[in-house]
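ok so I'm stuck.
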Amino acid sequence: MGGNNVKGLYWMETIFPMPNGQSVIPQEKLQKEFQKGTLRPPDPNAEKEVDGDMDEKIDKVIQDIWVFYDPKGTGIMPRKVMEKFFKDGLDLYALRMGKKSSKELIPPGVKYGEAMAQSLAKITSNPQQATKKEFEDFLNCYDLDEALGSFMNIQEIAVNHNVQMVDTSQFKEQAAQPKKVVYRDYSALEN
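replied:
not stuck anymore, here's the structure
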């Protein structure tokens, strides 16, 4: 794991968990942070969330992540800290892919600086800083693959959000109306 930031990896893994719920962070490193008190271990007695509680849990995790990346409570995340956030995400992704470092993930031809700028643009239009609201919106909209897509040379799929929906009530109204039968007049063809 080298010089990876265990706390950053922990928070990245909290917001972007594996589908099976397993951690890729070595347990001995996590235990060390739990013992030092720099991280809170998950509560084994916590009740399992039902669907309605997931929003609350996600909001709490986002708040905890914000506090981690903005420990002074400024309400602003400077560019340097946003870059650290993405670096932690890359480190987590590398661990999941069985790589020693995030440098092994980035394909040839991808320029790190350009990829970082594209990733920062997903959070905010101001490349120098992000607000807490912008950061929350980002975490609610992107999964790890999408967030790091610029580094992996994964092109985003354009989604047209201006799709007109069909009003199905018109089908019921049309079905309820009596059908008109129109007969063709073939008498003109007989001559």
